[in-house]
Amino acid sequence: MTKNVCASWGHNQQSELEALCETLRDMPELNAKQAIKLAAFHANAPSKPGTEVPTLEQRYAMPGDDCAAFKTPQGYQLFAMEGMLPAFVKNDPKAAGWSSVMVNISDIAAMGGRPTAVVNAFWHSDHGESDVLLANIKRACDVFGVAFAGGHSSIHSEYTPHLAVAILGEARRLLSCYHLEPGQRLFMLSDLTGSWHGELPYWGCVGGKTPEQIRAQWAVPAFLAESGLAVAAKDISNGGILGTLIMMLELTGCGATLDLSAIPKPDGDLLRWLRAFQSFGFLLAVEPQKVSSLLSTFQKSHLTCCPVGTINDSGKIHLDYAGATSEFWNIQQHPLTGMGA
Question: How far apart are CA 286 and CA 294, in angstroms?
């Protein structure tokens, strides 16, 4: 049913959009984000009775955004961490090693930052595969221009492969989802020059680029922050476009309208793109008076940056497509991660 909905929009747009919403709500990668609620519970618990409501600067350092951000005289120190699925580490150590760095780089970029150093902790049962894993962590660090600063290694025949990688970065001016306000425009920044990774919902876009080009591309969100062209960003990762949007809105309790027909996409099935983990892809919040300047910035770029919706105060996400409108998610009634408002 889902394939027909996405491949050829039929005569009953409303029912087909609602069917698409149902399919998206049932995505396993979206439901997996609910595991974050446990961390949210402890993060939101007051340290002691009578604790005051955190200031914005204090919230920057708490879980919720793609990185924790700590104020420094020069701007902000950024800190993030990502874990790889055990099956991914076991079955494809080359891709797992590379990806563990790349996803962290995107987290730093989403905060308007530039990466500085990476550390890792891994457990494995095989020396050869461990070597492949570490070699590709180091390769990614070299390509993205960050220090490979060591970590923790454990290899034993009885271990199940596990990998976690943490990253440090710096931001002069912060992009944060705490900056969301009704009336801001929602943009999507993507690299459509990439390609699919086999049949998987993964869109890669580093192939054919030099390390210098890759570093410059991942520095674009920092430029947008420092130029005042965007106030918030969230990288489009395992939850796809819709999961990313839910988490982006949760911190403030804002809502949004999203026009599916306005989303820049490669040729092919809409559902696959909505679910895709984009190796370079961000949702941006932009002040209305900055829209024209932002559009001008990408006129001669290989990157695509398009308005796709509007932030509002509804606490809900509504999808528009082919003349139909449907409520996709009520953030207040069904929090995904429990972070934020």
Answer: 8
> What residue spans in the chain does CATH classification 3.90.650.10 cover?
2-37+176-330
Beta strands in 53-146 (DSSP E): 68-72, 75-84, 114-124
Task: Give the C-alpha separation, 65 to 230, whole Å.
Answer: 15
d(CA 189, CA 262): 12
* Secondary structure class of 145 (helix, strand, coil): coil
Q: How far apart are CA 80 and CA 89, in angstroms?
A: 20
2-37+176-330: CATH class:
alpha beta
Token pair of 189 as six digits: 């920044």
Q: What is the pLDDT of residues 250-298, one digit of tens each?
A: 999 999 999 999 999 999 999 999 999 999 999 999 999 999 999 999 9
* 184-207 pLDDT, tens digit each: 999 999 999 999 988 888 999 999
| Residue entry with tokens 């105060």 | 313
> Phi/psi of residue 189, each to 5°?
-110, 120
Q: Phi and psi (nearest 5°) for 76?
A: -145, 140
CA distance 22 to 236: 20
Q: For the domain with range 66-171, which CATH number is right: 3.20.20.140, 3.30.1330.10, 2.20.70.10, 3.30.470.20?
A: 3.30.1330.10
Q: Which of 108, 60, 78, 77 is nearest to 340 (CA)?
A: 60
Q: What is the mean pLDDT of the chain?
A: 93
Phi and psi of 253, rounded to 5°?
Answer: 80, 10
Report residue 206 CA to chain centroid gap.
Answer: 17
